[in-house]
């Protein structure tokens, strides 16, 4: 995994640009059921050189095909027909989504070698537990979990393609616009099956400003003026939402949520299988994505620990895909980052240290907030910390099981525990908008449940007799932490909860019983 990280020393923006460019040269084909891969590629090659391709299952077999030249797509589109409008009338929007069927299916023998299909979802948690029991250390268990859950190269290509297809619609109105993914799809912490957050960007105007300096005139476009940026955002999203709803092939369940703090359009993109959220450019969200990208690239332990803690939290009902008073995955990720900044020596730098390494081109002031930090990973010195993941996992539970949440907050800019500025049960400073608490939604019972689970997990890891459990074929290490604790002896657990309010204990044990059934089914959220 460290080798993988060192090859990935490209900056966040370089990776984004490269992938958006790839997506522009890509098409998606719904294939016939008895398909010869050779025949398909042979035919497509008549339109131009194919750079890469893969197959995946989603309501039948699909192929994602990336051409070397963008012109190959136009050549292919010229050869494709419009569906026969016998029982349905069609909206004649020509996209890069095609359906291929065989002209004379009978004469085509099924292919000798079955197609290799790229998985687009992760294995269920119970199958994961089986796999983990075969590992030889907690550290290797954590890397197995990471490998099973992280986004694959193929899944990432599919995500950028979905953005590129939405961009084709936006360009009908705004020819210079781009649609880019942000959040978990690009910050290296996304898991297979997570939603796709994308935003519409009109601001690719850096090189444009220099051209405006020439000539004797101040020149500007005449544009419609509106009283607020929010209103403009709402109008644009409303129209694009309608557009996707009315004309977008495979865009279903389109919901416009325009009165939210951040207006958005939710829809399901059937051809790729993603649940999508489209909003208008939010610079701070992109800075957060890049910050996490940097932390994820710096050391392979970072991602392994985050994926493990998030899976653990999901199994025990500490996080939930529905909004509410639960800890969010973003807050949980930030708690892991803070813990890694607090190790001695630290495993990742603080945000202020990253800001200190920034040069002029890294300068970003957004809405009065300084969001500058270094983008070139080579400028960041690698950590001298050599702790294993076995140690770090136990220490994480120990650290937060005994953290003084009543008095202290987590400040990732400074990498310090600082006095809480206000009384929210859990206070994590927003790394960029310094007056916001990213975990404001979390209530006291949820925080206490987290503390209880962390203590219980630390205890299990300390008391464990690994050799005995391997002989008995019992789940051990991480596997033992991914089984809901209500399945164990509850009375043992009660003794370890001393010092946590008794009414919370009662609700905690009740929720454990409730969660058992639920968490086995939908074991891991976002």
Structure explained in plain terms:
With 526 residues, the chain is of the alpha+beta class. Among the domains are: 16-99, 2-Layer Sandwich (Alpha-Beta Plaits), CATH 3.30.70; 300-348 and 383-513, Poly(a)-polymerase, middle domain. The protein is 43% helix and 13% strand. The chain has 19 helices and 13 strands. The protein has helices spanning 2-7, 12-24, 37-45, 71-79, 125-133, 138-149, 153-173, 206-211, 229-247, 283-298, 300-315, 329-342, 351-356, 389-401, 444-463, 466-471, 478-481, 490-495, 502-521, and strands at residues 26-30, 50-57, 61-67, 97-99, 178-182, 196-201, 251-257, 264-269, 274-280, 365-366, 369-370, 408-411, 416-419. The strands form four sheets. The chain has a five-stranded mixed sheet with strand order 5-6-9-8-7, with helices on both faces. Strand 12 (408-411) and strand 13 (416-419) form a beta hairpin. Helix 2 (12-24) crosses helix 7 (153-173) and helix 14 (389-401) crosses helix 15. The longest helix is centred in the first third of the chain and has 21 residues, at 153-173. The chain is globular, with a radius of gyration of 25 Å. Mean pLDDT is 89; it is low at 515-526.
Strand order of the largest sheet: 5-6-9-8-7
Q: What amount of the residues lies in strands?
A: 5-15%
Q: Strand count, sense and closure of the main sheet?
A: 5 strands, mixed
**C-alpha end-to-end distance:** 23 Å
Mean pLDDT score, rounded? 89
Our Rg estimate from Cα atoms comes to: 25 Å
Q: Compute the number of helices.
A: 19
**Helix content estimate:** 40-55%
The helix/strand class is alpha+beta
Find the CATH topology of one domain: Poly(a)-polymerase, middle domain
Indicate the overall shape.
Answer: globular
Low-pLDDT regions: 515-526
CATH-defined architecture of one domain = Orthogonal Bundle
GO molecular function: metal ion binding; poly(A) RNA polymerase activity
Pfam families: MTPAP-like_central (PF22600), RL (PF17797)
Protein name: PAPD1 protein
InterPro entries: MTPAP-like_central, NT_sf, RL
